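Sample intake sheet
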Amino acid sequence: MDEERKVKLEELKEASPLDSVKILQELELYDAKSSQEIIDEVYEQFASGENMEDEILKPVFLSVVDGILEGTALGRSARKKGLTASRFIQECESFSYDEGVVFNSVDTYAAYKNARENDNVNSNMTQNPTSKERRKLYEDKQRMDGYKDRKTIGHSRVEDEYTENPNLYDSKKNRPANATDEKFGNLAETDHIVTLKNLHNTLKSNYALDDNDIKNIANGDYNFAMTAAEINDGRGKGGMSNAEYIKSQEKKGTPLDEKTKQNMLRLHKEAEKGIEKQVNKTVLHNFLGDVDKKSINEKYDTLQESKIRAYEKKHGVTPDENKLASINEIVDKKRNEELTQAKENQKDKGKEIRTTASKEALSQAGDYAVGNLILFIVKPLYYEFSDIFKNGLQEGVHAESGVEAIKIRFGRIKNHVLTHSKDFLGNNAWEFVKGFVSSLVEGIISLFVGIFKQILKIVKEGIKIFVQSARILFGKDSKDMSPAEKGDAIIKLIGGSVISIAGIGVEALINKIGIGEPWSVVLATMLSGIASALFMYVLDKADIFSVKAEKRRDRIIEIFDERIKDINEASEQLDFYTIEVLKNQRTEFENIKDFIDDGFKFDNIEVINAGLYNMAKFMGVNIEYSNTEEFCNYMDNAVLEL
């Protein structure tokens, strides 16, 4: 009962019978608040910006904090456990002792970063070779020379694929007599379009590849271009990419012509596509432990063709049947030797890769389980400290002393942990299994590159969305959700997943504009989180499924149900008070009446007057005299006033 009702009831106890009627009317009308007024208040509450802080400011701020923490070792360690500032605050603030054990899944971008950090060291590949070691490890002279032979026009003339000028010669001994190039600058050389250095740096952490795989990937026709020695060697590109070489020439004041620039950029783009395709093919074969027979056959078919062309170039005639058979025999022998060796190696390689992927997934799933344990313990602690700041140490638990309050608070924490520990262990075990599967799939996907990798991610995310949508539609809590609420939840689920995937693209874009790690990860984490917060806010305001209308309706019903309950309780209490007051008033009225009756009985005017004065006072009638003398004075004054 609120204070105003208490005051009215106290007044009722002391009121006269005439005043009681008025007070009773006020109490009856106390809860007769306008229905329209209630509805207006609810609409105003939903339309106000009072939740702006929780809906936008806090999520955006926490996204910035998440990004900043990405730049620290402690922040990255926490993220590996599935703990971010956003998740920590969200779960702690929504905690109550009435809830069960709740687990939130790690978003796609965080899972991507975790998987990427798992393969920092690849023992199957040389990690930091010198320039000389790199050339020795990854150059395939035979395939490079074969490519040059196929690009040679006639006897010795070769076209530069960057400049499109057919002014190169294939060997020093075939240098034209009238050539003026210095240090054999126009000698035709096979250039690795994507340099060995860049290719190695990109793939050195991929534990599904080894040095031989890098050599095979780097030396495909898709990554070869014929160009002049002065462009290919240290005087020109050297270890630079085509784009870097173009910029370096502009800085020197000797910019390349537009045709050459476009050719270099086009060939680089085509080379990247070819490399991505070959990397994915190699990773898949290595993971499964089978042999990429097609690539090996293509390699030796090319070698066979190169040997035939070399013979024609040297002797000026096509090899006869005997010579052709000899060439085929040599090539087929090498082909079969490599196939046999590859079969022996691939089985063990596949087993090793799968074991590594499983170990990394187990480690990551273990980290997630530790993160869940930390939150399980921290959430009730956060709740108690938050309650202390809001309501006070003692007041919040109605304790008589600080010691008693601390006992009550830590007792609640202890009871919560013990009560839910069994459920937590069971659920966390299941979460461990899910974390292992998710991390294993994410780890395997991380081994691939390019558009194929993105397709796999989308497929994985699609399966995840499908499973979570099924829970929303048919899960144990679905019966408590309306169709509109289910639709709204699914839309937000899909949108959140898409934005999370976009974080990967944002990071790649930031890297392309020259901002490397860790700042690219920091910025991408911030932008992804901010975009997610704004997206959820926009969806909430758009209210596509009219969920707010349902919530407003439910809120109005809730308010009226509560008011009906209050009115019924107030009515029962009012009836009790009214009966007691009327009973007391009836008793007092009978006593005064008996007193007056005695005056009439004994013909005592003074008793009668005293009784009438008491009756007036009892009824709350204000008369200005209480005896005969005061009555005479009152009448004299009234006559004088007239």
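Comment: The radius of gyration is 44 Å. The chain has a mean pLDDT of 81.
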